[in-house]
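Whiteboard transcription, Tuesday session. T.W. wrote the structure tokens on the left side:
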């Protein structure tokens, strides 16, 4: 979900001349790089590269909602483990996986995991980042006793607990996540700002991974060089475990 996902079209306040007018929707000029026109009548914004869909007066994201008989409804919660990919067709990381390493989720990194010698062949491959979510919380899909809970850390990066530890940094947020079947993994804490991916710093090395951040009213300016993305859910069979533990 993004900032504009439920804005009624009438409120968009489009004014001729303000936008780079190149097309018209009914009588209204609009910039097709920023809006999509439905039925030659209704304008919806494009957010995170997704032209929002239209349902009886509201624009909505297919990562969270569906429109059935002109009624907007939430997608059902996903009930099995899943992996995530970044979604924004305008970015080079479109379709790249969310990966866990160093107690931190990034986009397009390498999943880092560990398998104790005594467990050996009984460990899952550990090369994919598998996640489970329910009741607003989220955790890593692992075998290690105690599991590994995931959370928004105080910088609004996604972190997860170390194996055998329940420690979560003070100021972290452990609830308010939505995971929708056939849709996306949504942070409901940010007042609709949604996820963003920050390109690797040119000088800092760090490989091809982009940092994943959750934006909100207060950090949006600081993260202005980051690009909005949706996180697309890919459901896996019930019981899929990704690793003994992620490191
Ligand atoms: C992970 O490892 C399994 C088994 O070795 C392999 O089939 C799969 O393609 C690998 N996945 C990735 C993303 O590398
Ligand atoms: C927004 O995120 C920042 C971290 O980037 C955090 O310090 C701040 O408290 C958050 N703001 C709100 C309103 O939750």
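and on the right, the sequence the group agreed on:
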């Amino acid at each position: 979900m993004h900032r504009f996902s439920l804005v009624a079209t009438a409120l968009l306040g489009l004014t001729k001349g303000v936008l780079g007018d190149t097309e018209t929707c009914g009588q209204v000029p609009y910039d097709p790089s920023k809006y999509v026109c439905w039925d030659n009548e209704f304008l919806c914004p494009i957010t995170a590269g997704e032209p929002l869909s239209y349902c009886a007066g509201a624009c909505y994201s297919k990562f969270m909602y569906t429109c059935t008989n002109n009624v907007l409804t939430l997608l059902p919660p996903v009930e099995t483990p899943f992996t995530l990919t970044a979604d924004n067709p305008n970015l080079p990381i479109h379709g790249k996986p969310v990966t866990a390493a160093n107690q931190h989720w990034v986009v397009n990194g390498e999943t880092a995991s560990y398998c104790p010698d005594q467990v050996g062949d009984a460990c899952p491959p550990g090369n994919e980042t598998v996640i489970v979510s329910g009741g607003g919380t989220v955790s890593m899909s692992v075998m290690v006793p105690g599991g590994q809970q995931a959370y928004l850390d105080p910088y609004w990066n996604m972190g997860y607990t170390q194996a055998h530890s329940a420690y979560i940094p003070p100021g972290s947020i452990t609830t308010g996540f939505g995971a929708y079947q056939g849709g996306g993994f949504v942070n409901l804490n940010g007042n609709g700002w949604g996820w963003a991916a920050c390109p690797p710093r040119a000088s800092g090395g760090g490989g091809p991974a982009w940092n994943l951040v959750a934006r909100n009213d207060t950090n949006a300016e600081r993260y202005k060089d980051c690009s909005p993305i949706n996180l697309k859910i890919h459901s896996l069979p019930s019981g899929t475990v990704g690793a003994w533990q992620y490191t």
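Someone added at the bottom: The chain has two domains: 4-74, 82-246.
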